[in-house]
């Protein structure tokens, strides 16, 4: 059961969250634009709390998707029963709230966790069945992760506002990359899961308006991501990017996204959309690798 529970919380996705905090922390320290201090402990608790909330979100999503997954994921549906999923969900969220209470009692960041827990439950229970709103909810939560890292800096530095710098700008831009790439990935998943979603009465974009419209928005959000990434590369002097980081951005960021655009446009079968989704995941790792290489070579 333990192995099944680990699979249910999507360890690869949780690893991406962990790497995000680690990479941004490396950027902040090496750029000397953030002051290392007492926030080190807070950052560890922040990372753990975020991972726990995300893991709980996957469990509650599986809880409500039990019937849908019988159709959409015949060979990959979780064998865990609903009681186990619900119990795990409650335990993970309570633990996350306790941890967040210890480091964010007097900071507005504390409210991010109960808000995120509520939004993830609402998404699983209702929002994912609505056109675009469910996609936007997940994308906003993903984009919030880098911004949460910036918020924790206020605890360590003891100031209310940040002096905007190239590193702060890079983190904010990274948040937009996460937003648009996640929107594209969520729409691709909607097309993949059309059969089961339709059987359960969900009203996603491909179900309501067709696959062609869904493809249009997928490509639109991918192009938005590419434009942002392109602007980063063009403004390499402002960010002081070196050649290695620019090569990484091109190979692991730009190329997978271009491949995803082509795959999404030509896709006719479920496996094609799966390949397109995997290309976005590679680009997300590429974003992190790009920022990390930049951080360690500043």
Describe the structure.
With about 300 residues, the protein is mainly α. About 80% of the residues lie in helices and about 0% in strands. It contains 14 helices and no strands. It has helices at about 1-10, 10-30, 40-65, 65-70, 80-105, 110-125, 135-155, 165-190, 195-200, 205-210, 210-235, 235-240, 245-265, 270-295. Helix 2 (about 10-30) runs parallel beside helix 14 (about 270-295) and helix 3 packs antiparallel against helix 7 (about 135-155). The chain is globular.
End-to-end Cα distance: 45 Å
Number of strands: 0
Q: What percent of residues are in strands?
A: under 5%
Largest sheet: none
The helix-strand sequence is HHHHHHHHHHHHHH
Query: What does the average pLDDT come to?
Result: 87
List the uncertain runs.
Answer: 154-164
Number of DSSP helical runs: 14
Shape: globular
Q: What is the radius of gyration?
A: 19 Å
Q: Which structural class do the helices and strands define?
A: mainly alpha
Share of helix among residues? over 70%
